[in-house]
Amino acid sequence: MVKPDGRRQLALVLLCTAVFLDSMDLSLMGVALPAIGRDLSLPEGTLQWLVSGYAVTYGGFLLLGGRLADLLGRRRIFLLSLTVFAAASLVGGLLSDGWMLVITRVVKGLAAALTAPAALSLITTTFAEGSQRTRALGVYALAGATGYSGGLIASGLLTEVSWRLVFFLPVPIALLVLIVAPMALPKDGSPDRAIRRFDTVGAVAVTAGVLSLVYALTETNWPAGGAAMVLLAGFVLVERRQRFPLVPLRVFRSRTVSGANLAALAWACATIGWQFAAVLYLQQVHGYSALATGLGILPMGVAIMVTAKHVGRLIGRWGLGRTATVGMLVQAAGILLFLRAGTDADYAGVLLPALVVHGVGNGLSFPTLNIAAVSALSDDQQGLASGLITSSVQIGAGIGVAVPASLLAAAAPGIDGYRVAFLTAACFSLVGAALAHFGLRVRTRGTQAPAPA
Fold first, then answer.
1. Architecture of domain 4-182+254-439 in this structure
2. Number of C-alpha atoms within 13 angstroms, CB side, residue 40?
3. pLDDT digits over 86-102, tens only?
4. Cα angle for residues 163, 167, 168 (degrees, 5° grid)
5. H helix count then E strand count, the chain
6. What is the pTM of this model?
């Protein structure tokens, strides 16, 4: 029989493993696309949707997923969605039709949109406020932040053997979590009676609005962007009149909630946008292979892990606002160091320092913003808090990729286009620093430093 403390730690490992899978799946496909296209003779439009299909559904259904976790049971939603995620991964590895592959990616995106907020809200309701919760949220944020880099490395290795292994990789990991999870995760209570008054109109409006917005950003489709604005404006009107709204608008009166989510959006614009441009720079300018690219950015992942391990103590000493602000400023400095990169930039002397500095800033800011976003709301709204912060990151990722992609397409061939993209990403990070500084000034409950190990 697992002891209570051991059970909580096991639950944390399982939940972090799930969010690592969700983040890793964002990057696993990108490196494998050329091999898939050659093997199945797929056009670029179909290949792009192997990435976009996952991102659009992931970003679009997060708020709904978070609310369903609150209403139907966090453990129940977590186990169900992870089962669907594993099944879609297995089926995808067996298929050879392009659009059927896209459908499996869409299904995985929907499953991830339910898994992520359920996992985060399980952590915040399993660990008591204070040092335990701060440490657990730091580990969770670290798992999400390193999943993307881990996906690049794994994809490079697996694609050398077969692109189908990229689809199969999550299956045994997810199955292991599903086998162990019933022993570690707390059981759900009775379903909330509020389910009888579920805000169906609000759910449809916000899900369709966010789906349209992420699609518009991913595809640079301005009509979809206009539709998103109309749907989201309609959602606000609906929520103001609802007695039991999907997203109570009063939560945004909290400066911490608003500040954390806006800063997280800017964080994603900066770090995902920079990573998009940096991967292209390493491959197209320096001629790195997919595997070499993944290994090249590995020091950044190590810096994130080392820094995030100590972020709880810094929050206890500096507070949420100062920690997040410093992190965003350091991240911006790391991105700006890439302006030194040229066509013949030395890795050890130019690229490595920039990667490490960026990783330190990333490790400070991302966990802090996650802690701020969920610590400001009560336990019965943790699914909502989780959905909001993850939606902010996903929407920011869409903006972060769309902007440098447009800049690179408009720029003349050569290093100048990449420098403009890096400078833009740094500006996003500076905006995030300002949002964190002014929005997270008040110390939020449950953020004192962990006790020394």
1. Up-down Bundle (1.20)
2. 24
3. 999 999 999 988 889 99
4. 105
5. 18, 0
6. 0.80
